[in-house]
Amino acid sequence: MANAKNELWGEELFYGYIADYLDGELPSSLVKQFESELSSRQQELSAFQANRGRLQSALGDIGGSEALKHKLRNLAQDDQVRETMEASEIADVEKAELWSNVLRRSTLVAIVLGIVGVLVYFFMPERLGKIDIVEYIGYEALAIEEDPEGRTNLPSSDAEEIRQFVAAVPGLEFRPTMLRPLKGWNPEGVSIIDYDFMKVIAVNYTSPERANEKLHHFMFGGVMSSMKYKGEEADYRGIKYRIYGSDKLNLIVWQQTPDMISVLAGRRSAPELAEMARAGTPE
Amino acid sequence: MAKGLTNGFSEKQLAIYISQYYERADLVFRFGALLSLSREGAEHLTEQTFRLLIEDFSQVKSNTSPEVLLMALAWKAWNKIKNDKFREWSVPILQSMKSIGVEQRAALFAVDIAGLEISDSAKIFNTTDAVIRQMLATGHKHLATATISV
To answer: Is the pTM of this model over 0.80?
Structure first.
């Protein structure tokens, strides 16, 4: 560019600084001089402002072609290799996305299964902790007494036959353990009570000495700590038992084996039942 | 070559080239359009400018203003190609700029379009602030007095 004088004045100063003036950047030392020129050039000021805007807008609207951009990019990075790399990166992203989808779907399935599990837990027939199994058993004992033929699966007075039959009952969650022979009480059969949520086995006894009074030994899987119970446990020579009663029967419950709960139901008093439980269970 | 790099570029240099310079290619293109008043000329100037940039890219300092460097290289490139013939671009406002010289257009672009300081513009064109101011005066007078069809 050519050399020029260091200072502008008059019209040259006006046009040289017109943009500064409009942009509020006019040096204070030039304000007086500029404004004296401006007084007769208001129209030029407006025209400059409009045309400068048009020029900025027109240039802002144009740009290099894609082919040019491509060429410029290739100055630094080989196109084919870049495309291969990009394809590879896209493949990696797709792969990552696939795994992400698998993970997301698995999580969704897990959540759905969890919800189903919770629903099943709440709406399925209740397990031991939620139900009063002893109350059921109380009714069962009375029902067996009222209709022994209809509710006895194996009518037998042979203890060994009963033991074998009980041991062969399918679908039990525990290993049934009969009481040892009880003096004055004869077995008369086995009842299998099949609730939706568990199977209960009852060995029924009768006592000819007591006018054929009945006694029932119910067995089912579980631990007593998971059963509803509000009273205090009693202890008879190591048999820790709970007492349940109704107007017709007394029941005691104890943990006969680690995986099996027993209930003795009959018309004897609870301590007598506990004594029988002790006598029938090895110490 | 790793990552497909050419012209001895490292990955870091490629990143700088792309983000700081390649992304400003349109600035050079617009400068070329105002200098050459031609699309063809603008494309040619842009390519030549970037070729100059690539030649000495390893010497580019991190604190260099990309706009100033690109404009300086573009001016250098322009001086190499200014005698080439390019087809005119029939954009009215570009056509109207034919009536002022290329140096005035260059100063106008640097200050009023690219928004550079007078002092940076002076460095780009290897001249003084006063010369830039004088070039601007001519360019501004044209914008203030010309009838430009839109």
So the answer is: no
